[in-house]
TrEMBL record:
It is found in: Cytoplasm, Cytoskeleton, Cilium axoneme. InterPro entries: Dynein_IC, WD40/YVTN_repeat-like_dom_sf, WD40_repeat_dom_sf, WD40_rpt. Residues 172-198 have a biased composition (Polar residues). It comes from the Eukaryota. Keywords: Cell projection, Cytoplasm, Cytoskeleton, Dynein, Microtubule, Motor protein, Repeat, WD repeat. This is Dynein intermediate chain 2, ciliary.
Amino acid sequence: MPSKAAPEKKQTHPAVGAAPIQRRLSQSHRGSVTDARDDDQELGNMPTNYMGEHNFFGRQEDQLKLTDAELNEEHTRILTARNPQAAENIVRFSHKERMFKLIPHVDQLAVHFQLDSHLVHKESEEGKRQLMLDSEDVKIQEVEVTTSAAGPDGETSKEGDEDDDEKAKKITASSGKSKKLTNQFNFSERASQTYNNPSRDRETFVEQTPRASFADNVSQWSISDAYNEDFEHQQKAKEKEQKKLVVKKEDDRKKKFVAVDQHGVDDITKLSRSKSASLSLKIVERMINQNTFDAIAQDFKYWEDAADEYREQGGSLLPLWLFQYDMVKKLACTNLTWNSHYNDLFAVAFGSYDFLKQSRGMFVIYSLKNPSFPENIFPTDSGVMSLDFHPHYSNLLCCGFYDGSVAVYNIADENKQPKYHSTSRNGKHTDPVWQVSWQKDDLDNNLNFFSVSSDGRVVCWTLIKNDLTYTDVVQLKLEKPANQTEEGFPLISLGCGTCFDFNIQQDYLFIVGTEEGKIQKCSKSYNNQFLDTFDAHHMAVYAVRWNKFHPKVFASCSADWSVKIWDINYQEPLFVYDLGSPVGDVVWAPYSSTVFAACTADGKVYVFDLNVNKYEPLCEQMVVQKKRTKLTHITFNQHYPILLAGDDRGNVTSLKLSPNLRKRPKAKKGQEIIDGPEAEIAKLEKILSLIRDPDDVRNKSTAQQGATTAVSGAN
């Protein structure tokens, strides 16, 4: 095979108009020295006068002219992978090491051009695989052409021959050209472009926002002052909104009255809606009730049971008024409380103790002057389980509901909505609130009350302006059994609080009854542990009451049919009374330190006087009108010799005590009867001194000393 001849050197003159020279001319405006050097080598021995005259390379007149030696001089340039434009000494903050650290490696890559290709290299495996598939397709086409060219008898026509020649030429042409290898993973999208609306520019001229520079030194007290100012602004805004709402409601009410007047109402209706007429109608109603219930009013004022003169240790209860309301017939009386200022006014709470029958609730305000209808009615969404009047503000009433919330109402306000109400956001209970009680104002003179619930929390609620804040005082933690081993994470179980009562003389001391039958002695100052624990009953404790006079004596009742009298310094009860039925409530009399009453689920009321009989009640009387009616709560009036008893059918019965149940002890000859709390304390102390065992005090004192040393050692 003859070898290829070496390429001949290009002549200088004929190559002037050639394409390479034109390419150099098109790039000569860059003024590159290397381009000029290459052009000089390609042009060969071109006359210098020709270059000078015609300015072949398009050089500028003021361009520097170099000699051949300077042009042929080599300049060495070293290319490195380091990017001179990359930033150095970059410092970043490390959250792991909590310090600023220098980044050691900086990205030196500079991308000048990038193009995604859809071709496959023919030497790769995928390219070889596609070449094989294309060659097989060509062979299949050739076989089809040959088979179609042959006739059924193996003869071919002229037209068939011409078609076969054309197809063969096409096949050879297609096989001669190399087919472009495509990437199998390459895909293309087809889309249609919709009409785009032309954009329009709109400009407006506005005044420039005023700016001002402010500088100040920030400190803790300045931040605190700023927060206090903001809080005051928020409170003022809330008060303004409330005032607006009140004004709006009054305007709406006036509009309603005006609209009714416009429709044409008779004078009697107009008169009944005025305040003066309503007051007059209320006086007339009470006069009618006084005439209707005149016999009962006479008994309330003057009746005395004559049979008490012939029996030394017996008494009776005279039923007076029966308070009924049609809307609460299917609800149970859940609590009773007398007003602190008005002796004839009392509140009754209605709800349901059955978990499956929870719907609505209500509490009403009754007066002894009008037993036929309540003075005020306050419907609620949930059952009202407890309530209490404030001892100094007779218009404030706090309530506890079955859904775990508490509320404060102003009964003098025409609006039936609560002034304060707890929600899930501000720490409401998760179980029913069984009892609430007002306490003395705190150091900031804010009103506060306490509540106990089945969720094991005793909470202090404070009324601060328009908000109701809470503080957990005690959590009723259950004691772990002795045989239980400490494995894994111990679960803290809370007891279910059912009732509580605060000491009259020592307001920081209170006792809590639980569903487990225990009574916990607690203090407001210690919220992590109990001061003492009494194993009081075998079933749930329904009520605990401090004596009105003696600061160390309290009574408890339970579903285990018993009523017990306790001394706070003794673990064992001083008196135990079995009443034969679950005891719903127990309460001390306000006029004597030895008299207390209890009600049971079989509809009976028991009245005891420890000074007369320590073993049996002075009075045991059935007060319900229907069988299977359970008494739930009782309460004494602070001034009149009557008590109220509520049942599970929504009825409240008022009962008057006979003289034997409220008589004073007879004085011996030559002695004067001493009145006052000190005499009552001495009377009860004399009775308890006969019952107490001195060994129990010694054992308890030693046990308390041991507990104190153990706690101090642990600390």
